[in-house]
Please model this.
Amino acid sequence: MKTAFHRVAFGLAALALSGCVTPSDGTGGTSGAGPRVSFGGSSSSASAAPALQPLAFNAQQTVYATASLRANDKPARDSLDASIRMQSDKVEAEVRDGAARIRDPDLNAYVGGIVCKLAGPYCGEIRTYVVRNADFNATMMANGTMQVWSGLLLRVHNESQLATVLGHEIGHYIQRHTISRTEDAYKKSNAAMFLRMALAGAGVGIAGLATDAALYSSMMSFGRDQETEADDIAMRLLAQHGYDPTQAAKIWENVAAESRADINNPRKSLFWSTHPSPENRSNRLTRQALYATQITTEPDIGIQRYRQAVGPHIASFLHDELQLRRFERFAVVLDNLASEGYAAGLIGFYRGELHRIRNTGNDNAFAAEAYVAAASAPDHPVALYRSLGQVYLRLGYRDEGRALLLRYLELVPDASDRGLIEMMVKG
Amino acid sequence: MSIPVIVKSLVKPAAYFFAIVALAGCQAYKLVSPATPTPVTGGYSVTPTVAWSKTTVLGDERWTTEGNVLQEIAFADIGPGENMLNAPIHMPAFQPHLVVSRAGENKLPRYGAAMTLLDVKDFIEATLVQVGALNVVLDDMQAARFGAADGFRLGFGFNMKSGLAYKGFIVGAQVGGRLKLMIYSAAEVFYYARNLGEAERLATSVQFAGPVAPATTTMASVMPAAPAPATPPAAQPANPNLIALPPRPDGVARRAPTYTALPPAPAMAPTPTLGADVVALPPCSSLPYEQPPGTRNINDAVAGGRNTALLPVAPLRRVDRPCIPDEPQQGTTIRDVISPGTGTSGTVRPITAIAPSAAISGPSVAAPAVQPLPLCSSLPMEQPPGTRNVADAAYTRGALLPVAAPVRVNKPCIPDPGPQGAAIRDAVAPNGTNPASLRPITTIQR
Model:
């Protein structure tokens, strides 16, 4: 009975500790002991860059053949593994039926298709859900539930970069990382931790408020090795499936740039310091890509496919990110999208929105500049006229501001904020 | 594990548990009697027609007849610089840690007295999103009376993470520089409609005790007077939606400041343009070398016909002139343009990089007095007070102090290194280090 009780608790904990690619702002390199997997299958220190071996694997063997989890392997019903998966099933149901799930069939088919392609024999075991969450993350649970957050889709720019992250999560799954973390926690258990997990698992949210950080920190101390191993697997999957391995490092370069830009960066906790820093990841992946590109003769970056699937959602992803008021990070996101040649009107509009909403110093002038520049692009949203009108009003240009607000109402006769705007204009 | 250890380990979890109970389950409710004008947060009163239960959550006043998770009315009185709510509506259904974490980042929107109605709409939407509401929709926004004040009303809807849909409306007004809101929200299924009538009656029963200060929600009250125009209209932008601005009633055509297509604002100096009025700084690598005065080159003991053999040897160095670093690092401060007529002082934009358009003008774009921040790596190291350096243990009187590594002094600085093109903050106002006073992020573009 006691054992079963513990297993349920650790099953709950496993859900919170599901593998993820959450960016870190930690400064240290990889550390700790334990088995590691590197290119070529030899065992070496994950943090020792010179030990990287040239990729030498055959497309039918490698990643899947060396995985810790066998495809279609069903755990014994009374095992800890089965308990963890059972708890994961409950969380999966919440994700599947929850409000945050993005249900666009085209987008889900696109992301799920890449997962299936990368997962190979594990395709049938992994279910992918695209979730509306502005943070940069993807997660994998022990039962094969993968969540891809919209903030991630906003920050990767082509299919190769997306495949890097998805391959990373697949790596967590086929190497049984979530389960092994839970098993390790089981061994380290004590009453306090057990009670916290039980409270959190029972749905009492505020328990997580105070205990999550400590719990995460204590249980993620060996996360770097697993993150690094998952990175390795992702790189091998990229090469194996013809993607461009050089794109892998760019994700973390962008994440690092975002992190550096945010002077109010709150992520200084022990939890983050136990993960490889974006800089370390980027450097390591860059070196690995030198080997991986020898495998991929004609790498496919997959820009057009990515934009076709994700492009229709970019505006809403930008809107979600803007709501979080992380202006410095948002500026980097916009710069990255602009450098990738995304729609100038849309990006320019949101650059203006950044300044308009921040509204300090010369922001209104910069906002006006951005709006006017965006207006010359054919793809600018109609809301630009409303926003520019607001900015003109702030700058003291009443007539022009009023005219633009009226023009917005002409262009959007059924605008939901018509009443407010008419009230403003009337004044 | 011994019994005392187990008991000790249970103290904190137990404290959390009781905190949960105190927050979620044991709120103190008071009865609000019907047909009685009842003062609420915000300095006005409402008159319910049915009995309500009233409670206070983290200082916010909440009324409910069905239970706070299912249906409630929140009253908010928001001053400049304040958040919309101290606690999310429908606690504890909302995860309160979302609020805590967001507040820790200081990103929860704050009210400003000069906000227009559209700003207020953004303020409300961002607040709902940040406390964890999903799929937030604001609709049916219109002018409405709020007691004796000119106010507004808007409808809203959102989902909890579980998918449960909520619906509600907000009525309010900007009175005396403060934003007063009455927020009705309920589970969309059954509870919203069931209690809507009473919520509407409450909204229409708002009564201010004294005379109401004029609402600040009209355009005239939130805008300064327009500057007198002096510049005739210039060429119109290509976008017809931007050019069809109506002429002023007094017949004077005036253009808005657009910074790319529209003319500069009145009474402003013409915008300098790159090449004509200003010149780009040369790359640092193009500057010539020179021998530092009072030194000699190691290979040349005779310079200018004079014997310099007794001078100290020093390598050549580049001449000290303003230039653009060849391989800018993140945070490297560079000057990108300079006016030949005025030199390097005063009129030069003290920024590291110039925005996409070099021609930024307008009434509000004059760059504030700023000074460059140092690179973080250039800050000196210091030993934390009360600690000692491990290497100094044998030679200092602080041998008994705990060992700690030196840290950089805690001053504003620019992180480094970084690639060209990375967004950076380059300068800080000399009168303070408040992030709000920093210049917008610029990008090194060479």
Remarks:
- The first helix of chain B runs from residue 3 to 25.
- Residues 264 and 270 of chain B are 7 Å apart (CA to CA).
